[in-house]
Amino acid sequence: MAKRIDVSGLSAFYGNHKAIDDISMTVEPGSVTAFIGPSGCGKSTFLRTLNRMHEVTPGGRVEGKVLLDDENLYAANVDPVTVRRTVGMVFQRPNPFPTMSIYDNVAAGLRLNGIRKKGELDSIVEKSLKGANLWNEVKDRLNKPGSGLSGGQQQRLCIARATAVEPEVLLMDEPCSALDPISTLAIEDLIGELKSRFTIVIVTHNMQQAARVSDRTAFFNLAAVGQPGKLIEIDDTERIFSNPSVQATEDYISGRFG
Amino acid sequence: MTDTVMDATSSAVPAPSSLLASRRLPRWTPLAVAVIAIGVAVGIGAGAGLSSHIQWGLIALALFVLGNYAVTARVEGRRQAKDKVATSLVWSAFILAVLPLYSLIETTIKKGAGVVNGTFLTHSMNNVLTIEPGGGVYHAIIGTLEQVGIAGAIATPIGIFTAIYLVEYGKGRLATVVTFFVDVMTGIPSIVSGLFILSLWFVLLGHAPHSGFPGSLALAILMTPIVVRSTEEMLKLVPNELREASLALGVPKWRTITKVVVPTAIGGITTGVMLALARIAGESAPIALLVFGSNVINTNPFSGPQSSLPYYIYEQYVSGSTASYSRAWGAALVLIAFVMILNLLARAIAWWKAPKHSGR
């Protein structure tokens, strides 16, 4: 299921502005990799290049290679739609489709991709909601609007929606930043369970969260405002938080930054 | 100045025991001021022998604003008085805006309701002399429904697809050009759109048009930019996050638009279409040029002249007899009711289709 991601020499642009510069890294299959760094350093932009969502932004453009088990996402004959089916994404703010019920939200990705058999949908919806630890809370109101759930439930609904299409990789862009500590804990537990089935990459501003959930951590930084963001280092989470090899990482983690 | 007022207020408050509480006017004060202002205005108006009731009303409005200021300044202080002045100005503006509308509907109902009955709604003007009472608007209702219906069937898809292009795909020169021409089209007078279709008929078919369909085309020209504009605004209101959420699920862009973006905005889009229909239902100029008007029932919009409600009103008005004046008012009432029903329908659909936030 889970796949390895190999990034080499990747730069991303907004129009003429270079947002991230020459990033290379490997994300191991079935692991959780956390991206940390100050605001504006390009973590989210880099994350969005991993499923070709960056080019959805007007002016968004990418140079370099992203290999998903040896297949380049940016090869000329690759359809971004197929890439996004393989590499799912969960956003910062919970964004369930407001016109759809809870059931329809989870089934959206499948339906919109052509799976329509009721029985098949039912079982996938149940499995995904169970996988997102949401089934018990919503099983009696699957036909109610998804926007009626609490923030934390909505985010788990979005995770269920993303996992329902069975991607290989799950990208999470600050999935807990709009949630309270209890909902955050629920999502973090969920990440621990999901990593057996998916390769997970998570952007977070919360360093404790990175330390809790991830196997490996990448630290991004930028030289100055307006300069492109760079990957400073990537290593096992334990090492990054105890004995990083770069001084800037230690400064950032210990709060001595800036 | 400020100080004196503040002093006056604070001395009027006996031994302020609280830091925050101060003297407040009861909630009904503005109402009382309004009643007194109207009373005084009626007194002044009658006393000075002002014949126009509009003048009485304007005096009452001025007294209302001034009275509110004076009373509040005296009891609560200058800042609250300014607040009251702003509030009463807003209220006055609201009343000034609503009064003509109310007067229009009242007059139409008063003069039209006597005419509108079963016969009026189900009979045409065939073989009815304009100076005689009787006859009806059936043929005009048929004409309006068909012409507006066809115009809507043409303009709605064009308008919605144009808006989808502009919001979801449009960038660069073509989008700028389309936006510009939509803006220009919004300002086209209805007679010009009628003349355009008229000349088109002469150039392409070599004869003058005289059926409902060319009228529909002229109405569609008027309706399209309204639909484009309102749909565009509604689509822009759909949060980008929803588009991204859908795209990130591996859903192609066209399905994202048809299954996520448009359904989210469909309430507003429908409202816009309904309002555009209501707007063109009242056009008479293209009908006069292209459909010619008729006294008989013609259910075929593609052949032979038809009537329509606005044109019928005009026709009855120029006939100049008492009976035709009443028929004009009756038809006006029917037209207003038609537009009102479209508006209510738009509201109902918007309410029914709005994204649900309940169910917690």
Automatic annotation (TrEMBL), chain A:
InterPro entries the record matches: AAA+_ATPase, ABC_transporter-like_ATP-bd, ABC_transporter-like_CS, P-loop_NTPase, PstB-like
GO annotation, cellular component aspect: membrane
Keywords assigned by UniProt, alphabetized: ATP-binding, Nucleotide-binding, Translocase, Transport
Stretches assigned to the ABC transporter domain: 5-247
Any idea which GO molecular function terms this record carries? ATP binding; ATP hydrolysis activity; phosphate transmembrane transporter activity
Question: What biological processes does GO assign it?
Answer: phosphate ion transmembrane transport
Q: Which domain of life is it from?
A: Bacteria
Q: What SMART domains does this protein's entry cite? A: AAA
- The transmembrane segments are none
Any Pfam family hit: ABC_tran
* CDD domains (alphabetical): ABC_PstB_phosphate_transporter
Listed NCBIfam families: 3a0107s01c2
Q: What is this protein called?
A: Phosphate ABC transporter ATP-binding protein, PhoT family
| Lineage, top ranks | Bacteria, Bacillati, Actinomycetota, Actinomycetes, Kitasatosporales
TrEMBL record, chain B:
How does this chain sit within the bilayer?
Answer: Multi-pass membrane protein
Is Lipid metabolism one of the keywords? no
Output the Gene Ontology terms for molecular function: phosphate transmembrane transporter activity
Which stretches make up the ABC transmembrane type-1 domain?
141-346
Tagged with keyword Cell membrane: yes
**What GO cellular component entries does it have?**
plasma membrane
Q: Which PROSITE patterns match?
A: ABC_TM1 (PS50928)
What Gene3D superfamilies has UniProt attached to this entry? MetI-like
Q: Which residues form a coiled coil?
A: none
For this UniProt record, give its keywords in alphabetical order, as a comma-separated list. Answer: Cell membrane, Membrane, Phosphate transport, Transmembrane, Transmembrane helix, Transport
Which InterPro entries does the record cross-reference, listed alphabetically? Answer: MetI-like, MetI-like_sf, Phosphate_PstA, Phosphate_transprt_permease
Superkingdom, natural source: Bacteria
Its GO biological process annotations read:
phosphate ion transmembrane transport
Q: Where in the cell is it found?
A: Cell membrane
Q: Which residues cross the membrane?
A: 28-48, 54-73, 85-105, 148-167, 174-204, 210-228, 260-281, 328-350
Q: Which Pfam families match?
A: BPD_transp_1
Q: What is its main location?
A: membrane
Q: Report the family membership.
A: Belongs to the binding-protein-dependent transport system permease family. CysTW subfamily.
- Name the PANTHER family on file: PHOSPHATE TRANSPORT SYSTEM PERMEASE PROTEIN PSTA
* Functional summary from the UniProt entry: Part of the binding-protein-dependent transport system for phosphate; probably responsible for the translocation of the substrate across the membrane.
The name this protein goes by in its record: Phosphate transport system permease protein PstA
What taxonomic classification does the UniProt entry list for its organism? Bacteria, Bacillati, Actinomycetota, Actinomycetes, Kitasatosporales
